[in-house]
Write a structure and sequence with these properties.
NodD regulates the expression of the nodABCFE genes which encode other nodulation proteins. NodD is also a negative regulator of its own expression. Binds flavonoids as inducers. This protein is α/β, with parallel strands linked by helices. It has three domains: 81 residues, Arc Repressor Mutant, subunit A, CATH 1.10.10.10; 96 residues, D-Maltodextrin-Binding Protein, domain 2; 93 residues, D-Maltodextrin-Binding Protein, domain 2 (3-Layer(aba) Sandwich), CATH 3.40.190. Helix content is 40%, strand content 22%. The protein is built from ten helices and eleven strands. Strands 3, 4, 5, 6, 9, 10 and 11 form a seven-stranded mixed sheet that branches. Strand 1 and strand 2 form a beta hairpin. The longest helix has 25 residues. The chain is flat and about 65 Å long. It starts with a helix and ends in a 20-residue tail after the last helix.
Length: 299
């Protein structure tokens, strides 16, 4: 008896989404279908794969073993289909990416694309959203993945995650004014974060500004101040802050795909690939995830 790749894909979706309900939403299937797929997969392997724990799920030891093989199986399947279906496209594509998304999420996505399409040359540049959008408008970039302005509807939204307040773990910020570490003008969520801080009763001041994600993270790690970051860029040594610390709630942030006015066939192909790949990325797990219990190995 062979593993059914559709069942394997459902299995990984349950792990990545932290439960059956969210996996159903990701795969656009009913929860009963997700449950049926997992039951059929457990019948094939002859072992239980999940322990149900309240609203979440935990992998059994057998489930953890299957997870490693499942990821390899789907990667090979998707890579084979991509190579077999790809048109004979050549050319150069100039791609712009925001650093706080590119460094965590996209290296593997781009590596797979270039491996499958060696005749397409990528020129990738990372910068703040305002710079990327300016260069796209000037014709200096072909495709941009960028953080979308709040409540904007332009571009093709591909990714959504919370903004969160963070500070160095164990570092108290009880004294006023509250020190803020910020990206400079050009960061798409800076205006909204500062607007909410101005409506907050607690005094504050910007004490450190950096154009790079690494610079902002380093300043927070050193205890210079607190900052607002996309949830996926929160480091393990950071502590999540909130209303109890006198801070306002923050909105979600979105990554959208924008295409230039003149697009080559290579650029169109990359745009389609990025759209599919980014929407299927799993949110990276953190030990203290805000919204979902982490998938654990049941002993």
């Amino acid at each position: 008896m062979n593993l059914d790749l559709e069942l394997v894909r459902t299995f990984l979706a349950v792990i990545e989404q932290g439960g059956f309900t969210r996996a159903a939403g990701r795969l656009h299937k009913t929860q009963s279908t997700i449950s049926l797929h997992i039951r059929r997969l457990e019948e094939i392997v002859g072992r239980p794969l999940f322990d149900r724990q309240g609203r979440g799920v935990a992998l059994t030891e057998q489930g953890e073993v299957l997870r490693t093989y499942a990821e390899a199986l789907l990667e090979l399947n998707d890579e084979a289909l991509l190579k077999l279906r790809r048109p004979p496209v050549t050319g150069t594509v100039r791609l712009g990416l925001p650093e706080d998304f590119a460094t965590r999420h996209l290296p593997l996505v781009l590596r797979r694309f270039t491996a499958a399409h060696p005749a397409i040359r990528l020129e990738v540049r990372s910068a703040l959203t305002a710079e990327l959008m300016r260069d796209l408008g000037n014709g200096d970039l072909d495709i941009v993945l960028a953080r979308r302005e709040f409540e904007a509807t332009d571009g093709d939204a591909l990714w959504r995650e919370p903004l969160v307040w963070v500070g160095a773990r164990g570092r108290a910020f009880a004294a006023d004014p509250l020190p803020l570490v910020m990206f400079p003008h050009g960061c798409v969520y800076r205006p909204e974060v500062l607007r909410r801080m101005r409506a907050c009763a607690r005094p504050w001041e910007i004490v450190y500004t950096s154009t790079s994600l690494a610079g902002v993270q380093a300043a927070v790690s050193a205890g210079i101040g607190i900052t607002a970051l996309a949830e996926s860029t929160v480091l393990p040594e950071f502590e999540i802050l909130g209303a109890a610390d006198g801070l306002p709630a923050l909105p979600d942030t979105e990554i959208a795909l924008y295409a230039g006015a003149t697009r080559s066939e290579a650029a169109r192909y990359l745009g389609t690939y990025l759209s599919d790949s980014v929407q299927n990325l799993a949110p990276p797990a953190r030990g203290d995830s805000l919204r979902d219990a982490p998938v654990r190995i049941a002993r």
